[in-house]
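Tutorial, part two.
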Amino acid sequence: MDSDALRFFEELSNSSGPSGFEKETLELLRRYATPYSDSVYGDKLGNLFFEKNGNKKGPCVLVPAHVDEIGFLVTAVNQAGYLNFTQLGGWFDQVLLGQRIQVMTKKGVVKGLIASKPPHVMDAEERKKVVAKDKMLIDIGASNKEEAEAMGVRIGDAVVPESSFRVLTKKAFKDGKEAGERKIAFGKAFDNRASAFMGAELLRRLSEERIMHPNRVVVAGTVQEEVGARGAKTAANLVKPDVALVLDVGISGDVPGIEPQQAPSKIGGGVEITVFDAMMIPNQPLKELAISLAEENKIPYQLGHSTGGGTDGAYIHTANIGCPTLNLGVPVRHIHSHIGVLDLGDVESGIRLTIELLKRLDKKTVESLTT
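Running the prediction step on this input gives:
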């Protein structure tokens, strides 16, 4: 992963693109990936597709990665100049208070923070309870409604976390012994900019390294996944894939309080091959092919699952008459918060395994997935 690629990852992570407002992120993706694509096109919902032809008569392999992040939407500007909001995607109330945000207005970005009344004026019972989202407000420094509106804020404006990308290079240890170095990235929207980056890097390597693949690859930057995988539906209808490799993130279970059976993957353990989630059981021959290729090519991998969520694969695998589908993920700590943590080695493992799958998915192999 060279410096240009890492810089692009940083731009993707820092960009503002909550569900329904993905334009900035999609434009970054378009600029980076277009030179490595044979054709670029979109649909009427906002998905962006990058096609790379290996064999036009071969099967169509859809590689979607959603670009939207969780965020908020302004629902009211009150008389005191504070903003009421609702969520775009799933937020846990406890991660919100005191966090910096950015309001995407018609006049540009307005910065603020999420606040509530301070504990000093709460009674004893109130202080024992978690403050719910509907009791929180966004403070942008206004003192009345007119000031807030003069700053450009209005109902329907999107709100995103304010957080910046950084990379930590540190010594790695295994079984108490030093084992080289690791690069750990911190940043917002790793769900799912990490996988959008993987899709773009996939195209770059197929192109620059002239990697042969017996199929037609369509990498998709999909929209509105966090509010119901809406982009996946139109993407599947347009592309009509023969097989799909969904790129997303996994929940890293190496956080105190998480039991191994709840989330077996961890950062630094390699790409996650998802054996099931709440909305999809993968095609079993495709899953076994991914495992065998990872082992054959010495690509670090781990088997993961999620009982509390789904991905774009939920709708792609049931689209049309059905589509063999597998989720490949990057384990991330603290997803659906203002900042996540991942190991760049896992991103690299995901790119490598996806390329190996693309090299193997010829017509005969794809047909065998549903025989």
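The chain has two domains: 3-69+164-368, 72-156. In part three we will examine how such features are distributed along the chain.
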